[in-house]
């Protein structure tokens, strides 16, 4: 029997660890030899197109079914050896939460709390806490079947949190919500950073960039990238980009910038210039000096990072090209 919280070689605490996991459905491979870790207090975005293997991975982590090969650990407990211990430590919200439509919200959350082993003496206080945290107090007396999609999702989060789990697993948590509801759910999830370890699966790019600190990208059942949301663009590009806005004759501006050592390419659109430079060289000071010394007006200068959308499309396209 496993126990305790796993630690990686850097001494950081890993609460979720996926280790060489493969899942087969007959002759079909849903995920193939995938590995990644989620550290304590992290919100990890598990990103991939539909059918990439995200939901399969979520179900393995939560102990809904075992991997064909490999293992997954939650707070040091194996999903194979200690599935009940794993489930005690996880709050799970599937893409389409199954709830009893004829039950009132209050009774439903209390019922789930009892199933999860919350002591009766603590249940009322826990219910009030999650109702406040997930902002569904105003519908506590309503039947679940009467709720809007947004409130149903809040109640689903409430039932996942009722036993105060250290780990939260969310599968497409904003699927089908309107823009206001999406913003509210994202804000709620982000507010739990540091307090809980969260893995959030999605195919929606803004979901990850606005909510998560780390991203794992999966495609066709295989992990193709793991990094922080801030660094993943820089780790995949071979150059830097600087964007400037200049008041001056375009041809002369372009000539002066092109003459700088380390400039690889320039794209222009009106008074906007996007300058691609060698990755190891930071030319921002030289570019600014060149513009000013040329007698032109430097109106704006900023670095341009590769967006998560750029990264995702680049990786998925390259991966599909290699497999053809």
Annotation keywords:
elongated, 2 domains, alpha/beta, six-stranded mixed beta sheet, Alpha-Beta Plaits, 15 strands, 324 residues, five-stranded antiparallel beta sheet, Rossmann fold
Give, in order, the helices and strands: EEEEHEEHEHHHEHEHEEHEHEEHEH
Share in β-strands: 25-35%
Model regions low in confidence, pLDDT < 50 over at least 5 residues: none
Radius of gyration: 24 Å
Number of domains: 2
Supply the CATH class of the largest domain.
Alpha Beta
Gross morphology = elongated
Strand order of the largest sheet: 7-8-9-4-10-11
Total of DSSP H or I helical runs spanning 4+ residues: 11
Give the full name of the CATH homologous superfamily of the largest domain: P-loop containing nucleotide triphosphate hydrolases
Give a nutshell description of this structure.
This protein is α/β, with parallel strands linked by helices and 324 residues long. The chain has helices spanning 54-61, 83-88, 105-115, 120-133, 149-161, 179-191, 205-211, 232-236, 250-258, 284-293, 308-323, and strands at 6-7, 13-25, 28-39, 43-47, 69-74, 77-78, 90-93, 167-171, 197-202, 214-219, 222-228, 239-247, 263-269, 272-278, 297-304. It contains 11 helices and 15 strands.
């Amino acid at each position: 029997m496993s126990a305790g919280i796993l630690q990686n070689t850097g001494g950081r605490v890993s609460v979720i660890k996926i280790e060489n996991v493969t899942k087969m459905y007959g002759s079909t491979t849903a995920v193939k030899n995938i590995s990644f870790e989620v550290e304590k207090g992290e919100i990890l975005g598990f990103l991939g197109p539909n059918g990439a293997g995200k939901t399969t991975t979520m179900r393995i982590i939560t102990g809904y079914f075992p991997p064909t090969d490999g293992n997954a650990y939650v707070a040091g407990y194996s999903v194979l050896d200690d599935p009940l211990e794993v489930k005690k430590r996880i709050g799970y919200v599937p893409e389409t939460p199954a709830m009893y439509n004829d039950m009132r919200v209050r009774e439903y959350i209390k019922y789930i709390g009892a199933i999860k082993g919350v002591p009766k003496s603590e249940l009322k206080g826990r219910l009030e806490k999650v109702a406040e945290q997930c902002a569904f107090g105003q519908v506590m007396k309503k039947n679940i079947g009467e709720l809007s999609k947004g409130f149903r999702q809040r109640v689903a989060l409430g039932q996942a949190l009722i036993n105060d789990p250290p780990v939260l697993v969310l599968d497409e948590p904003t699927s089908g919500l309107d823009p206001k509801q999406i913003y509210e759910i994202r804000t709620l999830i982000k507010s739990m950073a540091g307090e809980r370890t969260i893995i959030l699966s999605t195919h929606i790019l803004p979901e990850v960039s606005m909510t998560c600190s780390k991203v794992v990208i999966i495609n066709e059942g295989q992990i193709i990238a793991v990094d922080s949301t801030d660094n993943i663009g820089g780790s995949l590009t071979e150059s830097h980009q600087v964007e400037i806005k200049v008041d001056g004759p375009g041809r002369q501006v372009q000539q002066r910038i092109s003459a700088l050592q380390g400039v690889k390419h320039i794209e222009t659109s009106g008074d906007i210039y996007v300058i691609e430079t060698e990755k190891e060289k930071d030319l921002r000071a030289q570019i600014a000096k060149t513009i000013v010394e040329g007698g032109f007006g430097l109106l704006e200068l900023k670095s341009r990072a590769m967006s998560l959308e750029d990264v995702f499309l680049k990786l998925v396209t390259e991966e599909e090209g290699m497999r053809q």
